[in-house]
From TrEMBL:
Coiled coil: none annotated. It holds the Pfam family Phos_pyr_kin. Residues 17-253 form the Pyridoxamine kinase/Phosphomethylpyrimidine kinase domain. Keywords: Kinase, Transferase. Pathway: Cofactor biosynthesis; thiamine diphosphate biosynthesis. CDD domains: HMPP_kinase. This is hydroxymethylpyrimidine kinase. It comes from Ectothiorhodospira magna. Gene3D superfamilies: 3.40.1190.20.
Length: 279
């Protein structure tokens, strides 16, 4: 048997999207692309196409935790990404799990609605995410509508970010695609203030799984020991390229091409390297 040098292991806890655009498949592809080994814990089965989510069936909370614990006790997981959870019981169970691994970097992508606006979380879940998961979160990656829902009542995105930091997460990255601006402004907050803005060119399409792609790429970069601000920059760059080369495979949103770097036309591209043109 030949052995190769060890590779960082990144755990994704997320829903399954059968289109392959969002959810656990997006996480697996992104984590692999960033040079890590993905381990995947399914939280929810969804029924959906590229246009919208038709149904969700959250898994039993105990089963979610059993899947995670079996792997955590076996492999040296270096970072955790959490996406769609599906139930309050699931949030509570993941909270208990995180209390046993307080030093692991956690990237939390608060999945509250589908791209078409279908609710994927209840108000009770939002409260549970704020009180039980944010204190264990290294980086929270809401888009701007999600940030407004989580920080109920805050009027500006800056105020939303301050509220979310006060709940106990270390960094908040608010992505700006839903804002009515010519370029997309992604803003990183931490240490009670706005740390950095990453403006990118606005792409013309609608994409399924952009938030999943971004959050799991960043989790993989944190697993490699990269500093959060650099991991955010590299993760945004990788996501932008994945979206720029997305495929329109169904009748709804485009599917990110997370393995764009393996394609014929770009053989020698490193997915995290190219930060030209759009930044
Ligand atoms: N996870 C699952 C299972 C989903 O179905 C969705 C959206 O429908 C998402 C995550 C969020 O997708 P996005 O990254 O586009 O916000």
């Amino acid at each position: 048997m030949t052995t190769t040098p060890s590779v960082p292991v990144v755990m994704a806890l997320a829903g399954h999207d059968p289109t392959g655009g969002a959810g656990i498949q997006a996480d697996i592809e992104s984590i692999l692309s960033m040079g890590c080994h993905p381990v995947s814990v399914i939280t929810t089965i969804t029924v959906q196409d590229t246009a919208d989510v038709i149904g969700i069936a959250p898994l039993d909370a105990e089963l979610i935790v059993q899947q995670a614990r079996a792997v955590l006790e076996d492999m040296p997981v270096a970072a955790i990404k959490i996406g769609m959870i599906g139930s309050v019981e699931g949030v509570q169970a993941i909270h208990t799990l995180l209390t046993d691994y307080p030093d692991l970097p956690v990237v939390l992508d608060p999945v509250l609605a589908s791209g078409a606006g279908t609710a994927l979380a209840t108000e009770e879940m939002v409260d549970a995410i704020n009180s039980l998961l944010l204190p264990f979160t290294t980086l929270l990656t809401p888009n701007s509508p999600e940030a407004r829902v989580l920080a109920q009542g805050c009027d500006t995105l800056d105020a939303c970010a301050m509220f979310l930091l006060e709940q106990g997460c270390e960094y908040v990255l608010i992505t700006g695609t839903h804002e009515n601006t010519p370029r997309v402004h992604n803003v990183l907050y931490g240490n009670h203030r706005r740390l950095e803005t990453y403006p990118v060119d606005r792409l013309p399409g609608e994409y399924h799984g952009s938030g999943c792609t971004l959050s799991s790429a960043i989790a993989a970069l944190l697993a490699q020991g990269i500093e959060p601000a650099s991991a955010v920059h590299e993760g945004l760059t990788y996501t932008w390229h994945s979206l720029d080369r997305a495929h329109r495979l169904g009748m709804g949103q485009c599917i990110p091409n997370r393995l764009f770097w393996a394609g014929d036309e770009s053989e020698d591209e490193d997915p995290a390297d190219d930060d030209t043109a759009h930044f």
